[in-house]
Amino acid sequence: PLLPDQEYEWLEAQTAPACLDWAKKQSQLTATKFDHLPRAKTLLAEMEALASTQDQTPDFWIWGKTLFRLRKTTANKQGRLERYERSSTGDDNMNLPPDANNWKLVVDIDELGEKEGRIFEFHSYMECNLFGTDGERLLLLLSDGGADLVEMREIDARTGTEIPDGFRTGPGRISTAWLDIDHLLICHSVYEGPKTVGDWPAQVYIWERGTDLKDAKLVFTAPSTDAITVASTLGPMNPGRAIITRSINYSTFAYSIVSLDGSVKELSGIPRGQSMTIPIKFTAQHVVVSLAEEATVCGRNVQVGTLVAYDIATDAPEDSRLSIVYEPEDDEVNLGLWGGGLAGTRSRFHFSMSKRGVERRMAAEYVPGGSDDGTGAWSIVRSIPTSTGSRSFIVSTDFYSDDIVVRETGILSPSTLWVEHEDSRHAAFDATRLVLRHLTAESADGTQIDYLLLSPKVPHNEARKAPLLMTAYGAYGISFPTTYLDEMLGGLSIVPWLRAGGSLAIPFIRGGGERGELWHEAARQKKRQKSYDDFIAVAETLCIGVFGMSNGGLLAAVMCTERPDLFGAVVSDVPLTDMLRYPTMGMGGAWIYEYGDPRDPEMAKVLRSYSPFHNVSDGVKYPPCLVTISTNDDRFAAKLKDAGAANVGGHNVSDSFKNTKLLALL
User: Fold this and answer.
1) Domain named Peptidase S9A N-terminal: which ranges (predicted)?
2) To 5 degrees, how large is the angle CA 350–CA 354–CA 358?
3) Residue 275, domain member (yes or no)
4) Quick one: 143 and 212 in the same domain?
5) 629: closest CA among 639, 637, 617?
6) Claim to verify: residue 434 and residue 406 sit in the same structural domain
7) Domain housing 494
8) Hey, is 260 helix, strand or coil?
9) Residue 27 host element (H or E)
């Protein structure tokens, strides 16, 4: 039987022995149950075989004449950071030789962890922190066991050795950028200090080589009400300068440039209403942002999603530094952070636009004196369409040239990289047996919802009767990634499903970014139910199972509690489940802009109306539920169990090298 809500709060203690013991026992109980299911051993063997042959597509960074990659394999689960010397001209388009001898080892992350008795992960979210014309120095950021906290070490990227008495920190939230070879701009929480509401460090320092981090010069303090503060590079073409990004909330941003002398200049001319999914990018002369609200730029009104550039290479007045890179068409959206759709080189700005599932990869170049009034203007110099269901990623750009590495992939197409390097993956399943359709469904309020249906090549009415899974995201303005074996598609766990003749539906629901910022706003905070209505509209025509991760895990959990009659099975991976207490958990305070503040009584009513934890009820026949969840929120799994549903504790099922058995359970 269900207990009062407060009786589950003891499970919020992330590392308490009793909490960890409960999670361990429940995980073992569920794993044991799955071990006795038909085909359990067969599926596990299949997943292990897939994991042994499907090396992950490497991460790449171009830096002058050098190309870096982080390659993960079954032998090196954490990866080998390697470098390759390009031709003397740097502009050859020849494929890089596949012979491993042409790549020189910088750091073996697995080996380094073994030496120190830890499980290190290479942390590259804030870009690869290289310095020098050929990337001679690297600020290596390592997390222990995938934790949010990282530690930093300065590495000679030519030899792979740590610089004696170089820059080095203990664990903390860290973002940093080179100012010159002897100075870093660094925002960190290595020591106690002011924090933002999102539990990120609020202070930024200049750290000089040979001095203790505690003695670094304080240059900036963000308000405690901000969500996140980050220090990042402006590239080698802007020596002695770096940039601070204040994420006031997930749609309001402010920027300041810090110089080597410690001076700080706010870029007040940039409109503050911006998209969280389009992080600031730059060329040698401009920083570029995407607007999340209408604004007046260059004397005219521009719509949401417009890409705007700010000139950092001039002393002109603030109001004359802005220029319009690209204004989207109706229903057109930039793919942004998670879509690999935004990047700058020395003189070009690259971006990807999507309109109702049809994508174009574009590039713009700034032309001084190119406008009617004699000021500069941006000109589109490239516009390349991609096929339905495919996506092009701008993997890396060179700050010393206009070279780029592009990766193209789709639900049915393994990743292919080209220009400076080509490193393709083998197909994990026979895509010729499948067909991908672009369809629509009508939501509760009449809105047409686009969705992709991937199914065996049989007549459409027969495909609709086949077993079918469904997944979506629908939050933060993020477009759902339709890429090969993407973790949000289930990673390798989707392969046995497709091989066995299963189908997959992906609705582009409101709250996501598929039709721009207005599509995101249509399901934010008090309008969140729109997102779930859209998903249900597609689900009502199909016989399905549902899965999702992160916000998609919340979506799956809501489907379980709101419409258990529609689904034959539910997989909810690392979901947010208690919408009344989420701001008190981890980074939850930074998510208030997206979901709303439960301290507001009116907002609390909305949140409780769909909060999975608060909507588990006795006497309801729930579908089989697999909940893979962090130990900092086991309460939803516990409450489902008390209501009679199946569950398992864990975290992020989609890493093929680390969770092969858990993938097989799916």
Assistant:
1) 7-230
2) 120
3) no
4) no
5) 637
6) no
7) 429-665
8) coil
9) helix 17-35
For residue 150, CA distances in Å to 113, 139, 338, 401 come to: 13, 12, 22, 31
The pLDDT of 606-635, averaged and rounded, is 83
User: Residue 90 carries which DSSP code?
Assistant: S
Sequence-distant (6+) residues with CB within 8 A of 3 are 639, 642
**How much is the pTM?**
0.64
Q: Which two tokens stand for residue 563?
A: 């419409």
Six-digit token string for 12: 């919020």
Q: How many CB atoms lie within 10 A of CB 50?
A: 22
**Exposed/middle/buried for 604, CB within 10 Å: 0-12, 13-18, 19+?**
middle
Can you tell me whether residue 517 is helix, strand or coil?
A: helix
Pairwise CA distance, residues 76 & 84, whole Å: 19
Radius of gyration of the chain from Cα atoms?
A: 25
For 116-127, the pLDDT digits (tens) are 999 898 886 545
Cα→Cα distances 291→10, 273, 474, Å? 42, 6, 19
pLDDT > 70 fraction of the chain, expressed in percent and rounded: 84
Report the pLDDT value the prediction gives residue 648, as an integer from 0 to 100: 36
Q: What sign does the dihedral 602-608-611-613 (CA atoms) show?
A: positive
Look at residue 98 and tell me if it is in a domain.
yes
Tens digits of residue pLDDT in 136-163? 899 999 988 877 789 999 999 999 999 9
